[in-house]
Structure formats: C-alpha cells, structure tokens
Amino acid sequence: MITLTAAAITRRPSSSPDRLTVVLWALAAFLVVLALLAAQLQSTSAHAPTRRAVVIRRIYRTQVIETIVGSSGGNSSVTQSVSSSGSPSVAGPAPTTRTS
C-alpha cells in the first residue's frame, strides 16, 4: 500500500507554465506585433507617391470710374483697388552681389 503525505496531496500538478515563462512569452508576442507594425509603416511610406503642392491664388481687380456732373469734360477720376486672396506671393532669394 502507498501512503501519501499531506504535501504530496496539496501540491498541484506542474502541467501549467510558471509565471516567468508566461511573462516572457507575452513580452515576445508584443515585440513581434510591434515589429510587424513598424515594418508595415515603413513599407507604406516608401511606396506613397509624393504630392505636388498646388497653390491657388485669386486676384480681384475692381475699377471705379467717377464722373462729376456739371463740369467741363476731362474732370473724371479713376480709382483702382486690387485684392488678393490666398497665400502671399513669396519673393525669390535675394541676389548676391560681389565687389571686385
């Protein structure tokens, strides 16, 4: 007849992994997923076409002609205004001058 001690009865079978193994497997799985996402991010940025910058600028020109009634001819005044919407025009780089 086999006698079992109290320690042998209360001890669990060791079929499940210990805590350290579970933590290492979880960390390894996380790093694999992170590496896959980083590889996908790099591949999509390499194949993306470069977009051209499109600048839309509208210039409105208004011309008002005032004629003064009752005066002899040629006394009319002209007022002009120009407005621009959009980004302001960008001046090119300043020219470089050299003294000899």
Structural overview:
The chain is an alpha+beta fold and 100 residues long. It has helices at residues 6-10, 19-47, and strands at residues 58-66, 77-85. A two-stranded antiparallel ribbon has the order 1-2.
The major pleated sheet works out as: 2 strands, antiparallel
Number of helices: 2
Order of helices and strands: HHEE
Number of strands: 2
* Secondary-structure content class: alpha+beta
Shape: rod-shaped
Average the pLDDT over all residues and give the rounded result: 75
Radius of gyration, whole Å: 41 Å
Taking strands numbered 1, 2, ... along the chain, how are they ordered across the largest sheet?
A: 1-2
Relevant terms:
alpha+beta, two-stranded antiparallel ribbon, 100 residues, 18% strand
Short description:
The protein is built from two helices and two strands; from the N terminus they run H-H-E-E. It is α+β, with helices and mostly antiparallel strands and 100 residues long. Strands 1-2 form a two-stranded antiparallel sheet.
SSE order and pairing:
Blueprint: H1 6-10, H2 19-47, E1 58-66, E2 77-85
Antiparallel strand pairs: 1-2
